[in-house]
């Protein structure tokens, strides 16, 4: 057995037994010739692998902030009441096990849960009661699950719509001709395509680096591990236009000379697996995948789908590669780009779902057409998922340069006050910034906008975000591991009314330490929102501090965690010098 098969082998045990038993670990360790502890280490990294028996139905209830504001607590209580189980514990119930989980990509339909990875949306206590009754009566789960389709609420005029226009299989692939790799790459460059996962790195530069590599093997990886809370736009593409994404991968393979591709699909989107497999089969039957594609000699490319197992950090490209190789999804130290040393040491392109879909449209429609849309630096359109206090949550394909105000109007936001751009690792804006435009020149956005009205507690939003990062930090480096813990505790202090202005200062000091010295984007960006919120909503925070004055001498038991903040901050600051 190859190490790269580890995750899929673990999934086989997880699916068969509901957990991974001791003998499975012994068997895998023996086959891989590694210690059992090594396998335990991998299992413990992923939220969806269990070491203790679970019930027939594993229920994962999303605890994102959108879910919290839509009744998470009531739904949690309803599941516990109806099943007799307790969340996040293994209580030996043969039928049910309950767990909380981070965002499952259904923010437009919250509260939502996955039951054996089937989606159940718009939950109410009554609906929970009915679901549990049906499961107890052995009704087929497929027949009672909800359709996960998200509504495409807005596209620009017909001429300006790029993604959600008519799609005919093979339309972009027609442009592939023997030896025209340079021309295709030039078109990608001309349309200024940048990575749509949030990093906005030049796609042409990335593909060119892989093309130029002398490495004997090359890989194309589609990052379908869309884990940023509030984001579900890649799901919309995979669900509605899977062929567009696959065509983008085929074009990348042709340009770079790659023979193998992977789609790393987050387990939360397991319900899309069949559709993706069917699309790959259709492409193979039509001669768009396999050997001598389009009749071009030695143009061979195949795509395999690998399932993640619940780890937000695997959205980071080197963590994703580690996971594909069968390891804990810990991001690598940035010594090489994946195009230099990626999957199994080979030259590898990792791009996000939307990037491949856009590449496909660029080749189909031509860069001149794409360049007529958008702004000077951001060409074409962008897909945004909008959720929160809006009457029309869902998917919006917008021209780059659209303002927040326009989006609030389109989505029918009610009393917007605090807007979160690009998920918790992005930035927050207040109502003095609603004129800002989504584009590289102004406000860059990876794909999600969460709208919160003036009746929502900012502390509750930030408590949810800091808790999320504390849980999702892989723990490999100290600034992120300790920093996220401390930031969460700072928010709890503010919430409990025992903070001082020193706490607000320390939030910023810790944020800077994390930005400068964390190994990967998770740690580098985790404090951004909190630091910005302290500045942008300073009246709110100052009021919190003022009303804390009477209590500020109260001893704060930080859930038994004892930190000497001054010592840690000074040590880290010295290390940075
Ligand atoms: Fe892990 Fe956080 Fe360090 Fe990234 S920054 S490697 S998530 S501990």
From TrEMBL:
Alphabetized Gene3D superfamilies for the sequence: 3.10.20.600, Glutaredoxin (3.40.30.10), NADH-quinone oxidoreductase subunit E (1.10.10.1590), NADH-ubiquinone oxidoreductase 51kDa subunit (3.40.50.11540), NADH-ubiquinone oxidoreductase 51kDa subunit, iron-sulphur binding domain (1.20.1440.230)
Keyword Transcription regulation in record: no
Every NADH-ubiquinone oxidoreductase 51kDa subunit iron-sulphur binding domain range: 459-504
UniProt key word Metal-binding: yes
Example of a GO MF term: NADH dehydrogenase (ubiquinone) activity
Domain of life: Bacteria
Pfam families the record matches: 2Fe-2S_thioredx, Complex1_51K, NADH_4Fe-4S
InterPro entries listed in its UniProt record: NADH-UbQ_OxRdtase_51kDa_CS, Nuo51_FMN-bd, Nuo51_FMN-bd_sf, NuoE_N, Nuop51_4Fe4S-bd, Nuop51_4Fe4S-bd_sf, Thioredoxin-like_sf
Keywords: 4Fe-4S, Iron, Iron-sulfur, Metal-binding
Family: Belongs to the complex I 51 kDa subunit family.
PANTHER family xrefs: NADH-QUINONE OXIDOREDUCTASE SUBUNIT F
Protein name, as recorded: NAD(P)-dependent nickel-iron dehydrogenase flavin-containing subunit
UniProt source species: Lutibacter maritimus
